[in-house]
Specification:
two-stranded antiparallel sheet, six-stranded parallel sheet, alpha/beta, 8 strands, Rossmann fold
Length: about 260
């Protein structure tokens, strides 16, 4: 079972490519977090925090009776995977952390705080794609317009008025105004260390401003079961459609299956 957890301003469409590749081999669950995609908006915007999302995921795991889970987490989804490694340790068969780790760089957090909550609108998909290309050139410097259009349709939706907006509640920005609101806790290393013994993968965009090579190397030092891969020419965060990401995910899943066979 793969449980795919998307990034802060994203939704289940983050994993379209993963689902297209793996749906015939694995069962996938790709939830929209509260306030994103098809999930309802939270009455209290200060509930848009990792610890509340973690409780939502735990409730989903229980409701679906999920027993052996491989978490694939991008950015916020990776943080949630670390938090869940404690209460769900016996159920986690594998974990991928996509461009996230226990140390978050201030420059990356400031950049995210600068755009989160600004959801549009735009009159056409091409207008949105060109906006994303202009604001995200440092993240995906080799994207062409076709790739930006694919990206746009993953992160945005069409309102009944016909206008296009980013597909999330703009009030998810409010916890960023609270001290430690972006991460939820001050020290994330204990949460990360709960993944010890679990076949794991850390992906890092080579251009990332949130997650450094030094942090990734320290993660590998503390957890010998974690493979580390750097995706070239990508910032925060890899889309998981890159050849390096595909190969790394496939290798992780092969390790999970091998571990299950060895335990049988």
């Amino acid at each position: 079972m793969l449980v795919c957890l998307p990034g802060l301003t994203r939704n289940c469409r983050d994993f379209e490519g993963v689902a297209e590749r793996l749906a015939g081999q694995w069962r996938l669950v790709c939830p929209d977090m509260r306030g994103r995609g098809d999930s309802g908006y939270a009455p209290d915007p200060l509930s848009y925090t990792p610890l509340v999302y973690m409780q939502d995921i735990e409730a989903m795991v229980e409701a679906l009776s999920l027993e052996r889970i491989v978490f694939l987490g991008t950015s916020l989804g990776g943080l949630l995977t670390m938090f869940l490694a404690g209460p769900l340790k016996d159920r986690i068969a594998g974990a991928m952390l996509n461009d996230i780790g226990p140390t978050l760089e201030a420059v990356g957090l400031q950049r995210i705080a600068g755009y989160v909550g600004k959801i549009g609108p735009w009159p056409t998909w091409v207008h949105l794609a060109r906006h994303l290309a202009a604001t995200g050139a440092d993240v995906f410097p080799k994207f062409d317009l076709t790739q930006w259009l694919v990206f746009a349709k993953r992160v945005a939706c069409v309102q009944p008025s016909g206008r296009i907006v980013l597909d999330y509640d703009p009030r998810i920005a409010e916890p960023f105004r609270v001290p430690n609101g972006a991460a939820g806790v001050a020290d994330l290393w204990p949460a990360f260390e709960a993944l010890a013994g679990v076949p794991s993968l850390s992906l890092r965009g080579a251009l990332s401003d949130l997650f450094t090579a030094e942090t990734q190397a320290e993660m590998a030092r503390r957890n010998p079961d974690m493979a580390i891969v750097t995706v070239p020419d990508v910032g925060h965060a890899p889309t998981l459609d890159e050849p390096e990401s595909i190969a790394a995910i496939d290798a992780l899943l092969a390790r999970v299956l091998a571990a299950r066979a060895a335990a049988a």
